[in-house]
Each structure stands twice: as structure tokens, then as C-alpha cells.
Amino acid sequence: xxxxxxxxxxxxxxxxxxxxxxxxxxxxxxxxxxxxxxxxxxxxxxxxxxxxxxxxxxxxxxxxxxxxxxxxxxxxxxxxxxxxxxxxxxxxxxxxxxxxxxxxxxxxxxxxxxxxxxxxxxxxxxxxxxxxxxxxxxxxxxxxxxxxxxxxxxxxxxxxxxxxxxxxxxxxxxxxxxxxxxxxxxxxxxxxxxxxxxxxxxxxxxxxxxxxxxxxxxxxxxxxxxxxxxxxxxxxxxxxxxxxxxxxxxxxxxxxxxxxxxxxxxxxxxxxxxxxxxxxxxxxxxxxxxxxxxx
Length: 295
What we know:
Blueprint lengths: L27 H31 L5 H7 L3 E2 L12 E7 L5 E11 L1 H4 L6 E4 L10 E6 L1 H7 L10 E9 L2 E4 L2 H4 L5 H11 L8 E19 L5 H19 L13 E7 L3 E18 L7
Antiparallel strand pairs: 1-10, 2-3, 2-8, 4-7, 5-6, 6-8, 7-8, 8-10, 9-10
């Protein structure tokens, strides 16, 4: 048996044995790891936020018409100027079989200056949620939608790979509901009464109260590599004519046709941008007419 006794470490006045780490020393590595992890996570969150913000600023509104419909507007795919605020439209009718059905597109029955002479439209800014506070919106067009918007264009695989439309200066043209309520001119009332005598219902008619409009269109064509000079020239001429018709049409006031201008903003073998300056209506909102009974 050994006569050596185990040596007990000396304890300090605080009860800490020799060799023990100082208070807080055992927690320092863990604290460092936690701070490092939190720092990396914070940097990741900040970086992700900046990246997302940058992408959101550059990302186009791929489906402007769907966005307008979500906000309660009717998409005006052909940019027809007939759906200006104050115009009376027919939204339903009777078919050959006698059944009632919606009219698509609606028919213009009477113009604003016929029904509400002297009434002034209100104009305010319209900012798209996806456009990060800017008064611009970009629409990516497929061949089917482009064909509906510009029927005169003859599309084939040798023309363009991508088509884009950018609308600048988007704004709202509107009347308040009570601006027009019971304010119909005598001429307008008589015309509507004559149409009702033909068997139409008052609920088939509506007044356009609000429209989303833009001040100009930039139409961009990204050409295919095999697009010939002749193909590009013909397509550009037809596109320019179609755009001129969009911005040069009657907006509902007789004798007032806005003058638009169409020009080439950029042109190369890769990309062509045609700019059409003039107001276009991209969406509208209406309210069905309601009969007013004398008391």
C-alpha cells in the first residue's frame, strides 16, 4: 500500500479550484459562436432584402391586364378609346335564340358629350404595385395576345423572339358616382328611352366611371437572328400603323381626336423600339344604369 496521499487542489477564497477557468471564460467560445452565427444571419437577411428589392425594381409587370382585373377593372386589350369615362355602353343583349348574354366587347351607345355636356373629368396618378412606385408598367406579350391587340400584324416564327409594351405616365381618369347620377341630358334620356322600347332592359346599360390610361407606349421587338431586313421592315411598318391607330383614336368626345406621334426610339438587327406618344386606355370600370322612379 502506498503511503502517498492524494493531493487536493487548493481552493481560493471564492471556492474556485486551481486550474478552473476564470468566470466567464468557459462561455466566451460559445458567445463568440452565437455572435458569429447571428452576424451571418443578419448579413444574409440584409443581402436577401437588397437582392429582392433590386429584382422587384427591374421585374416587369408580366400580366398587366390580369392585375387590372384583380383591381376590379375591365381589361381593354385593344386599347379602344370608346371606353372613356362618361360614355354609355351596352354590356348585355339578347341573342338570336332569345336568351340574354353578355356582350364582349361592350357596345358604345352614347358618348359623354351627348349625355353629360360640360362635365369635367378628374385626373390622378395611378401607380402599379409591381412597379415599385413608378408611373410605368411593362407588359410581356405572347403571339396570341399580340395578335388580339394588333390584328394587322402577321406573326410567324421568323419575326421576333420577344415582344414588350411599356406604358409611361399611367393615370386615372374618373367621375365620382354622384357626378353623373341623375345628370343625364334630355337628349341622352330620349335616346335611351327609344332603345328601351325595342325590348332592351335598363340593366343592360352602364356608364363608364373610371379608366386607367397612359400617356405613351414603347413597343419593343427582340428580333430573331434569322429575321431578314425585308421581314423586319414590313413588320415595323405594320406595327407603327397599329400603334398610331391606338393613340390617334376618338376618346368619346365628338370632334376631339388627340394627335399622337409614332417614331423609332431605337433600331438595330437585335432590337427595335417604336414609341407612340398619345393617350391610350388600358382598363376601365363601369356602373350599370338603374331606373329612377318619380315619387
